[in-house]
Task: structure prediction
Amino acid sequence: MRADPLGRTSVQVGTLGFGAAPIGNLYGPIDDRQAQATLDAAWDMGVRYYDTAPHYGLGLSERRLGDALAHRPRTEFTLSTKVGRLLEPHPAPTGSDLTAGGFAVPDTLIRRPDYSRDGVLRSLEGSLKRLRLDHVDIVYVHDPDDHLDAALGQALPTLIALREQGVIGAVGVGANTVAPLLRVVSEADVDAVMVAGRWTLLDRTARPLLDACAERGVAVVAAAPFNSGLLSRPYPSADATFDYGPASDSALRRARLLAEVAGRHGAELPHAALRFPLRDPGVACVVAGFRTSEEVVSAASWAVTDLTEEAWRDLDTAAARAADVPPS
Result:
């Protein structure tokens, strides 16, 4: 799988990145064996960029990723993690993080927002221990929506200093919403933004962000191309999820319309969803989450196989009018 520099940096990312939230038991548990098999399949398919965060399974994702990559040559893969949520002992654990955090793990730890210099350094130190590494390549400030001043005033300057010292290779910000990323791009010296769910076949609201990044030479990593589940099956089911919650009737109708259009061109909806972000030259990589080996194998094939221009024209037309599809 082709690897290219991330924006103006020397950090390399491939067309497809491995999003490691699912191996942190997002929504439901998987065991260590399944996580290892999924990561092994990704490696075998040529995936060399892996993205994780302390938030994912209260550190479980980082630990599993560290175990799986421990025997891989460090120069042959790129790894990113995130700062902004500091893991600390839970003063009153309930037994499970599933309700509060969305991960099927014991809630012996709690996430505390901390975008200060000390919080960033402590978070990164904890991540390195769990990952069993002496450095990571990219560090994103994670979901700073409600903490933008602290992120701009403390977290990002701390990471930029680490980049200038050669401790990390690239600095970025990741979020599910466009407005905070736009502000960061305009005010900070970042190398990349990771925008989750806002530059997809169904939701294209990140267009202003992509334009701003292109003007400033900032790379875009498009995450959550399946909108957390809705676009991950050939024909979306009634119980599909969208943005980590139940899909609305409107979103379901729009996704089904796109599925029908893709089908007429001999393509599946998830194939079109995975390829869509890569159509923009400013998108360096698409990052998707995987729970099984089969999911990785399919995605790796889709990532390097484009749809026809006719298919994209029809999908673009359908997406433009999808909001006006009447209730069925």
About this structure: Residues 324-328 have pLDDT under 50 and may be disordered. The first strand starts at residue 3 and ends at 5.
